[in-house]
Write a structure and sequence with these properties.
The protein has 60 residues and is of the alpha+beta class. It is built from 2 helices and 3 strands.
Amino acid sequence: MKITHRQLVEKTTTTENAVAWLQELEVIPNGVECHSCNNYQMTLTFYKNTHRWKCNKCYS
């Protein structure tokens, strides 16, 4: 995939856009299985200036 610097800057204007773009390219997975609660799907959430995997079943 070829991408120019201008296109990269446009796609990564915010952290949320950058993460969404990396997930679209499958660099970052869209979901991860939770090992605590029988492999429930976790999602990537923004928390205190960083992203972390959160299981909605364990932390609801």
